[in-house]
Amino acid sequence: MSSIYQINKGINKAIEFHGLKAQYIGYLAGGMVALLIAYAILYITGVNTFVCLFLIGGLGTALTMTVFRLSHKYGQYGLLKKNARRVLPGYLKFSSRKLFIHLKKGD
User: Fold this and answer.
1) Which of 45, 48, 63, 86 could lock onto 31 through a cystine, CB 3.0 to 4.6 A?
2) Regarding predicted confidence, which is higher, 86 or 56?
């Protein structure tokens, strides 16, 4: 007897949309919403429609290319790891050995 339910074999895999993985989908969506708001503001302030379309179209193309490039370069978690590594200190400096003297072996 065959089951009427399909088995989802993509459990615990990252969401992927046209080559974009994980958080990059959100970055692209947020950027597009920001561009939509920027277009509305420019249009309401009286900027020529063709100038608005040209400007927003160019920025949209640049945004899309940048997000795709980041997605392919860093992968699913690479950009998060890069940003986390940036906040690590380059070295630790101690002015005394007091911290290390009282350490016990095996702790």
Assistant:
1) 63
2) 56
Domain ranges in the chain are: 19-76
DSSP class of residue 20 equals E
The tokens for 44 are: 């309401």
**Model confidence, pTM:** 0.66
Residue 102 CA to residue 68 CA, distance in Å, equals 52
Q: Which of 68, 70, 63, 66 is nearest to 36 (CA)?
A: 63
21 backbone dihedrals φ, ψ, rounded to 5° = -120, 145
Q: What is the pLDDT of residues 90-107, one digit of tens each?
A: 887 878 887 777 777 765
Q: Tokens 């009427």 correspond to what residue?
A: 4
Give the H/E segment covering residue 99.
helix 98-101
CA gap 40, 62 in Å, rounded? 19
